[in-house]
UniProtKB/TrEMBL annotation:
It comes from Plakobranchus ocellatus. One of its GO terms (molecular function) is glycosyltransferase activity. This is Glycosyltransferase 1 domain-containing protein 1. Transmembrane segments: none annotated. Gene3D superfamilies: Glycogen Phosphorylase B.
Amino acid sequence: MRVVSPDVDYGMKSISWPYNFQFMRFPQGMPHTLILLSPLVTHGGNFCTINRIKSHLECQGFPCHLADPNDCTNESIFQHGGATGENVGVLVGIHALKTGAFMRGQKLPYILIIGGTDINVFCDEPKAMTVMTEAVLNARYVICFSKANKERTLKLWPKTLPSRIKVIPQGVVYVPGLPICDVHALISQATALVNSSDSEGMCLALLEAMQLGTPVIARDIPGNRAIVQDGHTGLLFDSPESFREKTEHLLEDSSLQKLLTREAAEYVDSHHNIQQERQEYTNLLDQCLRDLHKQRQMNV
């Protein structure tokens, strides 16, 4: 069970960095303000992901501003909290179609985070593929949430250099919305979390349940296979019959329940660590900004 609140605290305090810290981190003249683009529907996975990334980067001294690409124009993109064409360094956006459609027309460099619907749904639509292809090929870096998603991305866009595609698994953090006693009561009453989606990039609800010790049963699709190993960290089904069979097995076998919850929790702790996710995004943005700064200095 996953409850999302618009006022999200990801356990990472917002910091006002002193001038001397930012000067040491970012050389004089280096634009380092970031604009993060994503559909900002508050009760969706994109909203959680982009806010979590924003918290990561702000904790490392990057000034960040959120924007919805559906509400942006070439002029309004810089009207976010004092952002200007001079101090914005990089755009970071989720979804090759929804956000890529806007970013591909910008002169600023951008980092594109691939969404599950990009590589599982929209890729079957010729018009959408035209937009996404331009967005992917012009991105400074492309981020995928799993190795399986990277392989799928390279298959769809083989002209993309593999070195420009980075795999950064999503970190897991609890999003408050209900009093903690109510959340614990709901979790303790749940026998399992079921994901029956036909398309997933990386399902945060599954990861949260796995870390909380709730068994997961998920449809056998690439996005779910990337995080759920059938019979080890969860159960995968590919038909109504297999769903019923595996659910009955889970309900009848307490040793299976213990195995799944133990292995799932260990998997999330080792592969979806929130601190590791923060460091990987920070390293990538540092590298991107410094490369761009050197390039601009050479062109002066």
